Amino acid sequence: MTTHKIAVIAGDGIGKEVVPAAIECLKRIAELHSLNLEFTYFDWGSDYYAGHGRMMPLDGLEQLSAHEAIFLGAVGSPSVPDAESLWGLLIPIRREFQQYINLRPVKTLDGVKSPLASKEPIDILIVRENNEGEYSEVGGRAYRGLPHETAVQETIFTRLGVSRAAHYAASLASSRKGRLTSATKSNGIIHTMPFWDEVVEETTRLYPDVTLTSELVDALSAHLVLKPWTFDVIVASNLLGDILSDLGSSVTGSIGVAPSANLNPEGDFPSLFEPVHGSAPDIAGKGLANPVGQMWSGAMMLQHLGHPEAAEHLQLAFESVLRDGLGTRDVGGPSSTSEFTAAVLAAIDVIDTIGAMDAT
Ligand code: NAD
Ligand code: IPM
Ligand code: MN
User: Fold this and answer.
1) Residue 225: which CATH number?
2) Per annotation, catalytic residue among 110, 218, 282, 324
3) Residue 29 within any structural domain of the chain
C-alpha cells in the first residue's frame, strides 16, 4: 500500500470547517483506492498566535519538511494583523519550500451558476508566479504618524523566477489549446514589467506550438469578464495572478469552488494545496462555507502524489452533487457544509459501485 505523509493545517475561520470536510472525503477515497494517507494535524494559526505570540513554532518549517504534501485551509483572523499572520505562516511555507508555481484552475462546473449571461464553458489555468515579484521583503515604513510618513515595497523579478514560471505555463499551454496569455502592465508605467515581458517572450519561443499574447492587465480583466471562454493558460506575476484568480473564480460562479496548488515542481520540497479563498470571517462557524475549493485542492494533491484515478473519483463525486443542485448557498444550493459533505461521501460510494464512466 502506498503511504503518503501529509501535514494538515486547518488554520483560521472557515478553514476549520472546510478542511475536516475535505479530509473525510480524502479518507474514504484512500480506503477505496488502497492508499495510506497519513495525516498529521498542526493547530497553527491565529489561535496558536494568541497563546504563543507566533503563528507556528520556531521549528515549524522543519516539522513540515518531513511531509510529502501540506494541506492548508486558510490563514487570517480579525484578531491578528494580516501582516503577522501571513508573513508568519503562509508566505514562509511558499518560500522555504520553493513553491514557485501557484496553479489555479478556473472552470465552469454544472450546478454552479455563473453570473455571466453566456453559457460558454470556461476552462482556464492560471499560473501565478508565487515566490517573488510584488510580494518582496524589500521595503518598509518610515516616519510613522508624521505628515511625510512613507511606505515603500520593491518589486523584484529575477530571470530565473520569471523564466521558470513562463516555462511551466508554456508547457501546460502546449499540452492544451496552445494559447498562452501573459498579464502585463508594460505601457511605460511599471518599470519592471518590460523585463517580465522580455523573459516570458524569450521562454515561450522555445515552444513553437504555443501562441503568446501579452495583454495589459486592466484590459485582460475586462476580457476575463466579457469573454472568459477565449482563454487557455494565463501566466501572471504574484500580485496580478492573485487578483486574476479571484476574478476568474467569481466569473465561474463562486470563489468558494476555486482550488490551488502551490507547487515545487522538482519535488525537492513538499507542495502545498489550499483553496483560493481566505478564512471568510463573515461566515465562519455558521455552516455556510462551500468546501468544494478545499475538496478540489485535495484532488489536485492526489494528482500530485501520483494517483490520477483517485483524484478523478473525488472530482466526479463533488461535481455530481453540484450537478444535482445540492451545492451550498453561495452557489444557489440548499446545503450546509456538512450536508454537502455527506452528499459527496455518498456520491463517492455510488461512483465506486457503478463505475466512473456512468457517473459522468
Ligand atoms: P475571503 O476569501 O476570506 O472572503 C471573501 C468573500 O467570499 C466573503 O464574503 C466570504 O464569505 C466569501 N467566501 C470565501 N470563501 C468562501 C467559501 N468557501 N464558501 C462560501 N463563501 C466564501 O477574503 P477576505 O474576506 O478578503 O479575507 C479574509 C481573511 O482571509 C483575511 O485575513 C485575508 O488575509 C485572509 N486570506 C487568506 C488566504 C489564504 O490563507 N490563502 C487567502 C485569501 C485571504
Ligand atoms: C491567496 C491569498 C494570499 C496571497 C494572501 C492571503 C497573502 O490572497 O493565496 O490568494 O495573496 O497570496
Ligand atoms: Mn488571493
Assistant:
1) 3.40.718.10
2) 218
3) yes
Q: How far apart are CA 70 and CA 272, in angstroms?
A: 5
Total-model pTM: 0.97
Nearest ligand to the C-alpha atom of residue 95: 2
- Residue listed under C-alpha cell 521549528: 59
Whether 138 and 216 map to the same domain: the answer is yes
Answer yes or no: is the C-beta of 245 below 6 A from any ligand 1 atom.
no
Residue 117: pLDDT band (50, 70, 90) is confident
- Do 120 and 248 share a domain, yes or no? yes
Verify whether residue 47 is a known catalytic residue.
Answer: no
How is residue 153 written as a grid cell? 515595497
Q: 268 and 228 share a domain?
A: no
State how far the Cα of 242 lies from the Cα of 231, in Å rounded to an integer: 17
Nearest CA, atom 3, ligand 2: 242
Active site residue 324: no
Among candidate residues 82, 143, 227, 324, the one labeled active-site is: 143
Domain limits for position 267: 1-99+260-360
* 152 and 274 together in one domain: no
Q: Are 344 and 335 in contact (CB under 8 A)?
A: no
What mean pLDDT do residues 270-295 have?
98
Alpha helices in 36-189 (DSSP H): 46-52, 60-65, 82-85, 91-96, 159-174
What is the per-residue pLDDT across 141-168, written as a single tens digit (0 to 9) for each?
999 999 999 999 999 999 999 999 999 9
Q: Residue whose CA is closest, atom 6 of ligand 1?
A: 280
pLDDT band of 360, cuts 50, 70, 90: low
Say if CB 194 and CB 202 are below 8 A apart. Answer: no
pLDDT in the model for residue 189: 85
> Based on the domain organization, do 209 and 280 belong to the same domain?
no
Whether residues 290 and 229 fall in one domain: no
pLDDT at residue number 356: 55
Ligand 2 center–CA 257 separation, angstroms: 16
pLDDT digits (tens, 9 = 90+) for 188-201: 789 999 999 999 99
Place 131 in a pLDDT band, splitting at 50, 70 and 90: very high
19 lies in the same domain as 81: yes
